[in-house]
Structure formats: C-alpha cells, structure tokens
Amino acid sequence: MKKIAVLTSGGDAPGMNACIRAIVLTCERLKLKAYGYLHGYNGLLQQHYKKLEAKDMHNLIQRGGTVLHSARCLEFKTPEAAVVAAKNLNELEIDALIVIGGDGSFRGAHHLSQHWQGQVIGLPGTIDNDIYGTDATIGYYTAIETAVSSIDKVRDTADAFERIFLIEVMGRHAGFIALNAALASASDHVIVPELFETTEKALAAMLEELQYRRDNHGSVSYIIVIAENVWPGGLGALVSELEQRTGSEVRPVILGHVQRGGSPVPQDRILASKLGSHAIQAIIDGQTGVMIGECNGEPVAVPLEQTWAQQKPLEPFCVEAMSQLVNATTD
Ligand SMILES: Nc1ncnc2c1ncn2[C@@H]1O[C@H](COP(=O)(O)OP(=O)(O)OP(=O)(O)O)[C@@H](O)[C@H]1O
Ligand SMILES: O=P(O)(O)OC[C@H]1O[C@](O)(CO)[C@@H](O)[C@@H]1O
Fold first, then answer.
1. Which residues of the chain fall below pLDDT 50?
2. What number is the ipTM of this complex?
C-alpha cells in the first residue's frame, strides 16, 4: 500500500483545502494512506505531520486558508535541510510527496528530489497565477473576485467625489490579478510589470487618458489599478506625482492580504478538485518531478524546472480588450 504525503507552501490560496480534500478522498477510494505535513517545508524538517482521513474532509471544500498551514521556510534551501527532509520521509515510509504552492515551492520540491528517491508532484496553488504550464492556479479566481468586489465599492465613493483612486493589488512579479480585476471592474487604467517601461511613459499615458475623459465628460472619477512592486518608490511616490501633475486629490487603496482570504469561488474549487484527484492518478502511473496543471480543459504534466524557467505571459486577449476599452467608456 502506497503512502502519500501532502503539504502547502508559500502564500496560501483559497482552494488549497479543496485540493487537500480531493487528494485525501482519492487516496481513501484507492486504499492509499494519506498524511499531511504542517507549516510548509518546516513540517518536513521537524517531522510534524498528521494522518489525513476522508472523515476529516467534511465541510472543508468551502473554507479559505489551509488546514495544513503554510510558511516560507528559508532554511529549506540548504542541501542539509533536504537531507533531513528525505530522512524524515523515509522514516515515515512515504512513497510520494505532493507540494501545493507557487514556483518557489516547486523549486523546493525539485531541491528535495535531488536528495530523496520518492515521487514528487507539484500542484499550482497561488493567487498570483504566475506559474508557467498551467492556464490557472488554485486561488487566482477567488483573488480576482475579491479585488473586483472591492474596486466596485471604491468606485462608488470615487464617483461621489469625482476623485482619482490608485488601487494596489497583489502579484509580486505578475500582473494577472491587476489586469483581470481592472477589466472586470471597468477600471480606467492598469499598470502591470509585464507592460511597464518607464515612469515617464506610464505617467504620460495616464495623464493623456485622464485629460481625454475630462475634456469629454467634465469632472470624473478615475480608477487606476496597479500591481504591487511596479512603481519605483512605491504607491506613495505615484500618489505625489499624480497630485502634482493633475492638481487633484489622489487617494491610495492597498487591497493587501484580503485578496488571499475568503471562501474559494466555484472555479477554484473545481480546479482544486480536478488537480488533487489527478495528482494521485499521476503518482499511480509512476510520474515524478512534474507539476500537474490544466491547459485547455485537459490535465498536463509539466517538468518542475519548466514552471519557473519560463515566464508565463499575460493573456494577449485580455491585454487587447483592456486597451480597446480604455477611453471608450460612456460611464
Ligand atoms: N531554491 C529553493 N530551494 C529550496 N526551497 C525553496 C527554494 N525556493 C523556495 N523554496 C521553498 O519554498 C517556499 C515558498 O517559496 P516562495 O516564498 O517563493 O512562495 P511560492 O511557493 O512561490 O508561493 P507564492 O508566490 O504564492 O507566495 C520557500 O519559503 C522555501 O521553503
Ligand atoms: O504574505 P507575505 O509573505 O507578505 O507575501 C505576500 C506575497 O504573497 C502573494 O500573496 C502570493 O505570492 C503575493 O501576491 C504577495 O506579494
């Protein structure tokens, strides 16, 4: 009988619990034993785990966060740590480890596989959607939903005062949340790392669009969605610059960690359920060193190294729609 272990690592994402549930239920159906390591890679280093059974998976699919807890474990980057983890996995007689996390967590999984003979499978779980080789990641759809509902609320007060608002969304190195939240909330402008060139160019584009709106509609609200870490000097620097150049008040809103929480939307629950159960099938088929993702509605197995070596591009169709709709609004 195979023994399967699972852990969640890096930024938690809504739908991680749904994925754990799918893994455990599939294991139980196939008469495999399931274990959960706690607090990301820390659990592997401290042999901190619990047995997972189908009866404990009740009422879990709708819960945000992760019942296994998550962490960023810098110590795991050392060869010594991977050796300790391998020893602990062997002691528990684990045959396969499933890591649910982002590209950093996949680097960790690959690092472990250099020191451990067992099977290693990655499942994409991050709100950032920045993993090459899968159309979406678990948690991404919920983060967009949260960002959009928050931007809708900001729009109400922005309209009332005809103010400029700068709304910062998450996505450390990727503009997926920013672009799609801007598109879905009919925001007026979006700034993402993939398309950012210089502050001057970005400012010129914003000011030109704002002027166009003012010339055609008079005093208006103006909502700019910006991905975190893009603007040199941070959000405050952009607020000052915009206030100086427009002569208007600018209000910043940082959505922050609310985007990581909440009950997963159905799309994330569905993706998590598909990937979790397929991961067990992949293990039975003897796969290792791969991420199980989804492309065009089909499961895919992508070598772990590819998931971070290649940058996932923004969807050109979304970029096109956003650029077509800017200044076409009659709101
Ligand atoms: N090169 C590496 N070698 C070994 N382990 C690593 C490596 N890079 C990352 N890890 C492990 O993976 C953990 C999570 O990585 P990281 O903080 O980059 O988050 P992530 O998995 O990319 O998720 P997210 O982007 O959603 O926060 C790290 O804290 C560390 O334990
Ligand atoms: O919770 P922490 O460690 O501050 O990490 C925040 C980062 O994690 C993410 O939420 C997921 O990668 C990023 O969007 C964000 O930059």
1. 329-331
2. 0.99
